[in-house]
Amino acid sequence: MKIGVIGGGQLGRMLALAGTPLGMSFAFLDPAPDACSQALGEHLRGDYNDHEHLRRLADDVDLVTFEFESVPAETVAFLSQFVPVYPSAEALRIARDRWFEKSMFKDLGIPTPDFADIQSQADLDAAVAAIGLPAVLKTRTLGYDGKGQKVLRQAQDVVGAFAELGSVPCLLEGFVPFTGEVSLVAVRGRDGETRFYPLVHNRHDSGVLALSIASTDHPLQGLAEDYVGRVLKQLDYVGVLAFEFFEVDGGLKANEIAPRVHNSGHWTIEGAECSQFENHLRAVTGLPLGSTAKVGESAMLNFLGSVPAVEKVAAIADCHLHHYGKAFKVGRKVGHATLRSKDMATLKARIAEVEALINA
Amino acid sequence: MKIGVIGGGQLGRMLALAGTPLGMSFAFLDPAPDACSQALGEHLRGDYNDHEHLRRLADDVDLVTFEFESVPAETVAFLSQFVPVYPSAEALRIARDRWFEKSMFKDLGIPTPDFADIQSQADLDAAVAAIGLPAVLKTRTLGYDGKGQKVLRQAQDVVGAFAELGSVPCLLEGFVPFTGEVSLVAVRGRDGETRFYPLVHNRHDSGVLALSIASTDHPLQGLAEDYVGRVLKQLDYVGVLAFEFFEVDGGLKANEIAPRVHNSGHWTIEGAECSQFENHLRAVTGLPLGSTAKVGESAMLNFLGSVPAVEKVAAIADCHLHHYGKAFKVGRKVGHATLRSKDMATLKARIAEVEALINA
Prior knowledge:
The structure is a homodimer.
Chain A: E1 2-6, H1 10-19, E2 25-29, E3 42-44, H2 51-60, E4 63-66, H3 73-80, H4 89-95, H5 98-107, E5 115-118, H6 121-131, E6 135-139, E7 149-152, H7 155-158, H8 161-164, E8 170-174, E9 180-188, E10 194-196, E11 200-205, E12 208-214, H9 221-234, E13 239-248, E14 251-258, H10 268-271, H11 276-284, E15 297-304, H12 310-314, E16 319-323, E17 333-341, H13 344-358
Parallel strand pairs in A: 1-2, 1-4, 2-3
Antiparallel strand pairs in A: 5-8, 6-7, 6-8, 9-10, 9-11, 9-13, 11-12, 12-15, 13-14, 15-17, 16-17
Helix pairs in contact in A: 1-11
Catalytic activity (chains A, B): 5-amino-1-(5-phospho-beta-D-ribosyl)imidazole + hydrogencarbonate + ATP = 5-carboxyamino-1-(5-phospho-D-ribosyl)imidazole + ADP + phosphate + 2 H(+)
Pathway (chains A, B): Purine metabolism; IMP biosynthesis via de novo pathway; 5-amino-1-(5-phospho-D-ribosyl)imidazole-4-carboxylate from 5-amino-1-(5-phospho-D-ribosyl)imidazole (N5-CAIR route): step 1/2
EC number (chains A, B): 6.3.4.18
């Protein structure tokens, strides 16, 4: 079975590392000459709207999936003529646009911060009057890791903010005084079978995920599964989907979904019976899903900009290095460490050891 | 760090799957056009004594290691001029020749079946008179998985047996009435640090490993570590080494060593904190060694000739498929399953499920 992946970054790389032992092979479409997945499969170097490359990919593989959601809808539509594509064009259309996404949450009765569609500065001014400040202005599409957004704290921040984000369609979101950020990674098979990993506590630094800790018997697990299950069913979703929530007043408010394997699920490589990467591949290829149960207590720490010296990471007990083989660049996600410990106290001590390395 | 591997079969493939997340890349020298490691690195297609390819490999990588021990000594000597090679030429020289290997066991005080060097039929007749029957005649080099050997049960089996094995240097080994077969996989770093995985119970079918089960607190663990430690020190060994023993009268008799990652250590991918593949790479590259502790209860079953339907393997709980991507051929090792369960009773039930698939 040969899998085509749109995008050839670290998510594609980890998909291939999970799929190769299942007997799968991989081809990646990515315009970057140094796409880090290419060590693990064929690299088709081309733009995502390059029909010649898309046609070559479709002819060469059994199905196509994605490692990022900002794929042009037209790309998905074109590919779908020739080869099965999971998740569906509809799931991508919703997930890549914050307005569609938030509107779906509202339609499905999933609590989410107040929001408004912003097509102009006048729209923004009106929405700020209705929702109040502080609020966050985000581009409807193409935002990630805190990019394409601006926090509006006082009236003067609002002035010219629409132009500042490029005068593109935006979403204004009411600021939520959250006590924590959690995410639920879920997987749904072609037959509708659905499994959920344990809720993960996330810490973001400057808008970028820094630390994820898998929870045990989280009191909001059932509620989160209910909300995520509604979305999976609505989209007739196939594959892994990550859902980020704010913890507010002991409940959850939906932040956003990612229709793909997700950074907050990287701990599952060592920390779960079957990783998010293997489960995504099982789902899209129609295999039975694997167990999402935890193995020990797990956490994940991102390496941003550079990976610490490998001998230092390797010297930390319970620590598993995932080096993406990418060029180091300030702020870039270039690797992560998974920690898998016997108990939470040990895990916390290990987290401190990795953080000391990162901050050294 | 780029690693050159002599041989491009499943062991090379699993080395690369373990090393890629450490930021390593790989090149494999293998004459086979369909060498299954090539999905995970550069494939230099050439014979093991092809100086041009060896030189290209040496120039291209930081160090060289092996995935099989029958490498011509001259190949190792040639490579060693240009690039570090682990394990050493001396370790390979001993391990690839049953006479040198058994003589070393004897010199180190490690019990082993009676044995004799056989250079002619007359040598064989004399050795049979001294050691008795039953006995096993084995070629000194190039034997594996029961190939290159003949069991001699009665006098008539001895007649012409030397010629039958090709009139090449052989070893006669007294038959040992063993109650079980166990192996110890060990790893030794460049600095001499040594770690041992738990003893593994092995079941061979027709001379080929069928099933390995990792033990817990095996009463012979300490004795086995003592014996293996002597060999590692004697050879100033660097990397993973597997040592196969017969269990005899509550003690151990040495069967053979393999100076490489080993089939009876495949369970460590999911079943140990750090797999034999990662630990081999840590050892040869001078990184700190990883923990050899078990995670749950583990077993490994080989898939010989063909891999069962992937959807059936994936449907078994606790089961992890390792498909080597090789063409199916009667008797060929084409994959394995690792089982990792919470307790031994569950593990045994899962073993039965995989065996039912294999025998279906």
